[in-house]
Amino acid sequence: MMERLEQRYCIKFYQKLGDSQVETIRNIQTAFSDDAMGITQIKEWYNRFKDVCTMVESEPRSSRPSACRSDRVIAKVNAMVMRDRRVTIRKIAEEVGISTFSAHSIITEDLAMKKVAAKFVPKLLTVEQKELRVEVSQDMLDSTNSDPDFMNTINTGDESWV
Question: Using one digit for the tens of pLDDT, what is the confidence trace for 132-158?
């Protein structure tokens, strides 16, 4: 944002010096290279300053504040998911009063959860889950070492063929 203000000050300065729009555009693009404002924006600000506008700040906009990612809303979403892991994003959005996009981004980004088989689960394993996986793997390894035919008794597959 500060870089945009700097560019507007420069545009105002070049306009006051009597430079043309073309010279102003060339100077801004030379000075700021890749971070330069677009040509249309430079022309728009140049014309504003030519029409006796003195403010370099943008006009205040009337938009509603973004309150959907506040700590209070995130806590509400988290409580809903912990109460019922099968709750839908649409249901969360309706109860909390936010958009479905906001509800989805809170779940995936802020709470670090993903949807698995129609319920939300944390993306990261807990310490207990990691320990359990190590124990099971160690048991399988011990069974394989003690009985070489043990691996022949294991059936593998997924639920899609059932």
Answer: 988 988 988 888 888 877 777 776 666
DSSP string, the chain: -HHHHHHHHHHHHHHHHT--HHHHHHHHHHHHGGGPPPHHHHHHHHHHHHTT----SPPP-------TTSHHHHHHHHHHHHH-TT--HHHHHHHHT--HHHHHHIIIIIS-EEEETTEEEESSPPHHHHHHHHHHHHHHHHHHHH-GGGGGG-----GGG-
CA distances from 67 to 23, 40, 48, 154 (A): 43, 32, 33, 53
Report the pLDDT value the prediction gives residue 118, as an integer from 0 to 100.
52
Range of the domain at 103: 71-122
Considering the domain architecture, whether residues 75 and 118 belong to the same structural domain is answered as yes
Number of domains in the chain: 2
**Angstrom distances, CA of residue 141 to CA of 134, 138, 144, 146:** 10, 5, 5, 9
> What pLDDT sits at residue 22?
92
Instruction: State the pTM of this model.
Output: 0.36
